[in-house]
Design brief:
- This protein is α+β, with helices and mostly antiparallel strands.
- Helix content is about 30%, strand content about 30%.
- The protein has eight helices and twelve strands.
- Strands 5-12-6-11-10-9-8-7 form an eight-stranded mixed sheet, sandwiched between helices.
- Strand 8 and strand 9 form a beta hairpin.
- Helix 5 packs across helix 6.
- The mean pLDDT is about 95.
Length: about 300
């Protein structure tokens, strides 16, 4: 098994194709990466090398792993499941060479096969990870949730890049309510990089705007036409306007548009401790599973 390191944009199409195939093949479960997840994680850095490795067979990616400090993101196509133990062994060796003392990864609580593979590789469950939500767009009512008086919903067609960046930064720099102290560095150039990914569509990037033209909430939906599944990443509401239903409003507006274009499912996830997001997503989605953190020392 040979690992091919991500070198730059020339490697992106094969990885996105892998994410799309995995999204279809793992249904109804979620893959590690939907194409939108990967693009969001690579934003602003498509053209530089990363500790993101792919296993290529017959010209196509069949497995991938990505080190993000001590966190390991990994996926293998179900048809190549025998690669999983090999990828775990390779991950441990790569992490040791990099000087890491610990490695951890999220594993779906309903994926007993992956849990067994992680346990065999010396990992153990140390606590809860994330909560997943989904909505069957072929069955659900698609009437958008009202944004409330004084607000209107719009997409990002023709948006000013700096304004789009600011409506992301405001909520993601105000996370003290979930015990996180951080300042978002998302910039206009980061946003513009998303538009060069080949899969971002501003029609499905929905904003809430006040009567005065102030942007106060956003939800980016990423449709994957091959699988019919769209993922939301990221979603945020300005701290001054939280609790008023704007999360459901921007997301259901996006879903109505996704339905019109033939999407079958909408998905979103958040950390288990983000109770505010969990409550907001529950207004527009059905709870669909959870993950746990598995860890081992090196």
């Amino acid at each position: 098994m040979e690992l091919h390191r991500y070198r730059g944009r020339q490697d992106l199409p094969r990885l996105l194709a892998f994410c799309s195939v995995a999204t279809s093949a793992r249904a109804p479960s979620r893959p590690t990466w939907h194409p939108g997840d990967l693009v969001w994680q690579l934003r602003g850095r498509f053209d530089v090398a990363h500790p993101l490795y792919a296993v290529i067979r017959g010209g196509s990616v069949v497995g991938a792993l990505w080190f993000q400090d001590e966190d390991l993101l990994m996926d293998v196509l179900p048809s190549d499941g025998l690669l999983l133990p090999q990828l775990l062994d390779a991950s441990i060796e790569e992490a040791r060479r990099a000087g890491s003392s610990r490695l951890q990864s999220e594993v779906a609580d309903d994926d007993t096969g992956r849990q067994a593979a992680f346990a065999a590789a010396g990992f153990s469950r140390i606590g809860p990870g994330g909560v997943r939500f989904e909505r069957d767009l072929t069955l659900a009512s698609h009437a958008p949730h009202p944004a409330g008086a004084g607000f209107r919903l719009r997409d990002c067609v023709g948006i000013d890049p700096e304004a789009r960046a600011e409506v992301h930064r405001a909520p993601w720099s105000a996370l003290e309510h979930i015990g996180i102290s951080a300042a978002s560095t998302f910039s206009a150039s980061d946003y513009l990089s998303l538009t060069t990914s080949g899969i971002y569509d501003p029609r499905f990037d929905i904003l809430a705007e006040t009567a005065e033209g102030r942007l106060v909430a956003s939800a980016t939906a990423w449709p994957d036409w091959a699988s019919g599944v769209a993922v939301f990443e990221p979603v945020g509401v300005h701290p001054e306007f939280r609790g008023g239903g704007l999360t459901a409003a921007v997301m259901t507006e996006a879903m109505a548009r996704l339905v019109a274009e033939g999407m079958r499912k909408g998905c979103v996830g958040t950390a288990h401790f983000n109770t505010a997001a969990i409550a907001a997503y529950a207004k527009a989605f059905d709870r669909a599973g959870s993950t746990s953190i598995w860890s081992r020392g090196l």
